[in-house]
Amino acid sequence: MTELTIVQAAELLCRQDNILVLMHKSPDGDTVGCGYALCAALRKLGKHAQPVCSDPIPKVFSFLTEGFEQQSFEPEYIVSVDVAATTLLGDGLSIYKDSIDLCIDHHPSNTGFAKNTYVDGTAGACAQIICKVIKAMGVSFDRYIANAVFTGIATDTGCFVFSNAGAEAHSIAAEMINEGAESAMITRRIFETKSRSKLELEKMAMNTLKYYHDGKIAVIAVTAEMLSVTGAEESDTEGIASIPRQIEGVVIGITVKERSSGIYRISVRTSDGADASAVCSVLGGGGHKAAAGCSIEGTLESATETIVAAAEKELERLQ
Amino acid sequence: MTELTIVQAAELLCRQDNILVLMHKSPDGDTVGCGYALCAALRKLGKHAQPVCSDPIPKVFSFLTEGFEQQSFEPEYIVSVDVAATTLLGDGLSIYKDSIDLCIDHHPSNTGFAKNTYVDGTAGACAQIICKVIKAMGVSFDRYIANAVFTGIATDTGCFVFSNAGAEAHSIAAEMINEGAESAMITRRIFETKSRSKLELEKMAMNTLKYYHDGKIAVIAVTAEMLSVTGAEESDTEGIASIPRQIEGVVIGITVKERSSGIYRISVRTSDGADASAVCSVLGGGGHKAAAGCSIEGTLESATETIVAAAEKELERLQ
Fold first, then answer.
1. What angle is formed at CA B65 by the lines to CA B61 and CA B69, rounded to 5 degrees?
2. Residue B260: beta bridge partners?
3. Rounded distance, CA B145 to CA B205, Å?
4. Domains observed in chain B
5. CA-CA distances (angstroms) from residue A249 to B159, B189, B196?
6. Which residues of A touch B (CB under 8 A)?
7. Of A177, A315, B34, B216, which has the maximum CB count within 10 A?
8. What's the average model confidence in pLDDT over B185-199?
9. Sites in chain A below the pLDDT cut of 50
10. Which residues of A touch B196 (CB under 8 A)?
11. pLDDT in tens, A106-144
């Protein structure tokens, strides 16, 4: 594995054609923003480029996906964006796991699975890196690319709320707005719009709230039954992960979501120096310091017990 | 009333001493950020300057108020920041209403009550203007001033979610972070921290949600009883105002809060071109296009009926 600079990554991309850009499974605004921004930029250079994902892209990002021509070609160059490990490609893209030519990512935990890699663990969003790569490729920005980059930054920083929203996130956001990004439309769609069923789901989930460890740990549960009763979709559960950590005194906020019978997807959000990635990595997961995830098999009760125990260990380490 | 430029406002301030800076009643992060940033800058020029408000400053802004020396002097120059009309000074400061020397504001509805005025209705936050005034005064930024300016911008843009979070808001935010602003601490305190009682209050308020006009209007009620049952404070009701507008399909989101027996404080939030200020101004209130407020006397039912009727008129105007 070779570590590249931004300029080297851009130069490599400029020399390729028929480029497939892999996004991670359960796609969020950052991987989607990166995939579509990069492909739009590559197409402006006359290349064939197509973003692909093993899961459907959520409807909330339709302003990026609709009208973006689907190109079919024999892939000659494989790039991954915002993908920390090949397990995150999902089944649909796992065929590419040993043949990724270029990995562009911002996860410090990136496993170095590609031939060439550019990882900046200090970037709040991978879209900040993609923005620099596009500049280095010499492609001029337009409203579409600006929207895609802004989407990535806004999503991964929780709309500039999280601690990863640094000066660079804001200054690139300003630049993208000046390039035509429809920031108000994007933030309204992603952060200010809830379906009625999502609202109902949040009410039900909030009723499950439990505190542990002197109120330093808070856990919210989302069961499959809640989804079916409210008619909410899997993607409606996303905002819920940030609720427990918002409560005064809570250092580690946990959401336990029932994925399929017996499998629970855990989201961990931390503050005050607690390391979410450390909590999740002992259970086979990973992520960032302030936000990470893992999966646990069992019952709702046993999964909760397991993750609370891991969180308590992290609190003890901090003392 | 004379309309000034930023430079003229800065020059005027540089010539004064013993400056009293008036903030609006029910202080929010923008008026507080402006008041403390401006006074800190004036003090760096060796002047006496004191921010004052007719209501207590909420504890969430203690990182600005604590340790900020209280100066007592005979005021020689009176400045108001983020105050659209003298009625908003509150009883405690109404003695100054006819003697305000300089008004710095970003409300297009500013009534022009001061001898000299600088109003920029396009600024998302008044703190963006204060930042420019401080620069024009030749004062160098420090962490304290950067924190105060960042607080103003983050508060008035709903942490960069609202449509008023333009390129300037982001670029000044980036600048303030580079000047030392503790953005993560500030956004966490203001947007990511809820007391348990606030969480309970939100749950109860969400249960009152009602839809009108084909789901284009949504109304949430907060009664005095809810506050007493949950132990929540008046300031805990603030985030609730943004909930109804977040619901898919809702164009006008309304919150009806019981202030004292028979008086209801109404918050209106709009999207898709609807004018919140127009809805509220017919009832004696005002504000911005996307966010405005007014007070209505009556019962919860009659106040709701009145504001819904005003909102329906605005929807009809839009057709």
1. 175
2. B263
3. 36
4. 2-191 (3.90.1640.10), 196-318 (3.10.310.30)
5. 21, 11, 9
6. 154, 159-163, 165-168, 170-171, 173-175, 177-178, 183-184, 187-188, 191-196, 199, 203, 206-207, 209, 242, 245-248, 271
7. B34
8. 88
9. none
10. 247-248
11. 998 899 999 999 999 999 999 999 999 999 999 999 999
Lookup: tokens for B8: 């003229």
pLDDT (0 to 100) of residue A238:
76
Q: What angle is formed at CA B199 by the lines to CA A215 and CA B229, rounded to 5 degrees?
A: 105
Name residue B15's amino acid.
R
Mean pLDDT of chain A: 94
Give the integer Cα–Cα distance in Å for A247 and A300.
Answer: 22
C-alpha B262/C-alpha A230 separation (Å) is 36
Report yes or no: A104 and A116 within 8 Å, Cβ to Cβ. Answer: no
Eight-state DSSP code of residue B89? G
Q: Provide ipTM, 2 decimals.
A: 0.84
Q: Which two tokens stand for residue A186?
A: 């994007």
Bridge partner residues of B50 (DSSP): B20
CA distance A254 to A279: 11
Contact B167 A178 (CB under 8 A): yes
Phi/psi at B298 (nearest 5 deg)?
Answer: 145, -150
Q: Give the N- to C-terminal CA distance of chain B in Å, as an integer.
A: 38
Question: According to the model, what pLDDT value does residue B137 have?
Answer: 98
CA-based nearest residue in chain A for residue B164: A184
Stretch B166-193: mean pLDDT:
95
Predicted confidence (pLDDT) at residue B210 exceeds the cutoff of 80: yes
What is the pLDDT averaged over residues B76-104?
Answer: 97
Which candidate in A170, A245, A271 is best for mutational testing of the B interface (most B CBs within 10 A)?
A170
Give CA–CA dist A64/A48, Å, rounded. 17
Residues of B in contact with A166 (CB under 8 A): 177, 183
- Please state the φ and ψ torsions of residue B204, each to the nearest 5 degrees: -65, -45
Distance CA B307, CA B239 (A): 20
Max CA pair span of chain B: 59
Does residue B151 contact residue B64 with C-beta atoms inside 8 Å?
Answer: yes
Residue B258: how many CA atoms within 13 Å on its side-chain side? 17
| Residue A140 CB neighbour total at 10 angstroms | 10
Q: Cα–chain-centroid distance for residue B24?
A: 8
Range B219-246 average pLDDT: 89
B153 pLDDT above the threshold of 90: yes
DSSP B276: H
Question: Is B55's pLDDT higher than 90?
Answer: yes
Other CB atoms within 10 Å distance of the CB of residue B110 = 19
Residue B191 has a pLDDT of 87
d(CA B38, CA B187): 21
Q: Please write the tens of the pLDDT for every residue from B221-234.
A: 999 999 999 998 87
Distances (CA, A) of A140 to A131, B115, B138: 11, 48, 36
